[in-house]
Amino acid sequence: MRITAVTCIKNEGPFLLEWIAFNRLIGVTDFLFYSNDCSDASDRLLDALADRGIVQHLPNPAEGRNYQMEALKDSRQQDVVLNADWVWVADVDEFLNIHVGDHTIPALIEACGNPQTISLSFQFFANDGIETFQDRPVIEQFTRSHNPDLWGGESAIEVKSLVRHDFPLQYYGAHRPFFRSKLPPKKRPSWTDGAGRDVPHRFLVAANPRRIRKFPSRGAREFATLNHYALRSLDSYLVKNDRGDVNREHRAFDDSYWRDRNDPAWQDLSIHRYLPELERELQALKSDPEIAALHEEAVALHRAKRDELLVQPAYQEMRDHLRATSTLPPAEEALLEKLGLMSEVPA
Question: Taking the model in full, what pTM does it have?
Answer without folding.
Answer: 0.94
